[in-house]
User: Which sequence fits this backbone?
């Protein structure tokens, strides 16, 4: 009897057709399917983080190239208009239909992310180097933690605090030499910091807004709303009138095309999806990796020297990311409300 019961249990686990009480029963194999879903999810996370780490690491240089002959707000406005239109058409083809509440939320997030965040960055890179801009953008995780803590969304563990501080030190070591370069505008430096704060605010409040649940639609609406505001700002500041369209270089056009396809469509879609899966502070670790990626791409593609200082700074930054990850695992969050960002433990 015990042997027959053991055989029945084995068949139940196998997921095959079995006979129970004279009736054929098809039993599924939940463990196997759950494992498959877990692996797919892990691969999706890895690819999304790779997009925000590697692609966004190269966009600082692409912005600098684009704004060399195209005014900054025009550059940002065209970039996000084309990207937003592509994403919105894609979402619409998938059956997404935005509601009024979605558009209102898109205006808020688009204003923070793109009008202030990207608009200030594109403008500032006329006067500061791309490496220095990346260093200042590295303040984003600190702003996020402070804002999330003030709103009761995040507790700052000791490991996270140490990791964030170590990351800033690493990025400062990596690009600190640019601080001595003459011609850097104080106003431009402040503009990048304001943009970093605005982006951080958008990250913190976006889970509380009625953004679409559809991943592509959730990306498309803020992008297209931000683009409209950027184009309006370009018109109000006279940038369209001052644009010499015949003088735009091929390099600037290629830089703009790269920003549209990879910087906006690919990387921002991955970034928005990650914000639905992981804690904001963990997602924001891309600001540590981006300067490292920029330096290594310069060494690989432009024969730039790879000095011991660069290697040391890169190691410090990677160590900071590890500490932030561990800090997110140990931090205890308040009870999660519907629509709020998941903790790192839920992400992993």
Assistant:
């Amino acid at each position: 009897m015990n042997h027959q019961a053991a055989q029945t249990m084995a068949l139940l686990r196998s997921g095959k057709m079995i006979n129970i009480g004279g009736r054929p029963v098809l039993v599924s194999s939940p463990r196997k399917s759950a494992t498959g879903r877990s692996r797919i999810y892990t691969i999706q996370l890895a690819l999304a983080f790779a997009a925000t780490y590697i692609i966004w690491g190269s966009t600082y240089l692409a912005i600098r190239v684009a704004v060399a002959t195209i005014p900054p707000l025009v550059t940002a406005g065209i970039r996000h208009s084309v990207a937003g239109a592509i994403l919105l058409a894609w979402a619409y083809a998938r059956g997404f239909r935005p509601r009024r509440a979605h558009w209102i939320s898109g205006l808020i997030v688009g204003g923070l992310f793109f009008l202030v965040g990207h608009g200030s960055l594109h403008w500032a890179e006329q006067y500061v180097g791309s490496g220095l801009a990346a260093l200042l953008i590295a303040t984003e995780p600190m702003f996020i933690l402070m804002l999330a803590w003030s709103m009761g969304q995040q507790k700052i563990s000791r490991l996270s605090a140490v990791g964030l501080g170590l990351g800033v030190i690493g990025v400062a070591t990596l690009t600190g030499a640019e601080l001595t370069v003459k011609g850097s505008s104080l106003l431009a430096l402040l503009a990048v910091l304001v943009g970093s704060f605005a982006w951080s605010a958008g990250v913190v409040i976006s889970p509380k807004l009625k953004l679409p649940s559809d991943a592509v639609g959730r990306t498309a609406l803020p992008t297209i709303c931000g683009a409209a505001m950027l184009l309006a700002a370009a018109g109000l500041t006279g940038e369209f009138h001052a644009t010499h369209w015949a003088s735009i270089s091929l390099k600037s056009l290629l830089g703009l095309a790269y920003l549209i396809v990879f910087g906006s469509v690919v990387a921002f879609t991955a970034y928005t999806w990650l914000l639905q899966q992981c804690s904001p502070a963990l997602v924001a670790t891309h600001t540590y990796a981006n300067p490292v990626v920029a330096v290594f791409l310069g060494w690989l593609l432009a024969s730039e020297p790879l000095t011991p200082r660069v290697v040391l700074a890169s190691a410090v930054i990677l160590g900071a990311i590890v500490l932030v990850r561990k800090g997110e695992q140990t931090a205890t969050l308040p009870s999660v409300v519907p629509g709020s960002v998941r903790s790192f433990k839920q992400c992993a």
Observations:
- The beta strands are 17-20, 23-26.
- Confidence is low (pLDDT under 50) at residues 15-30, 332-348.
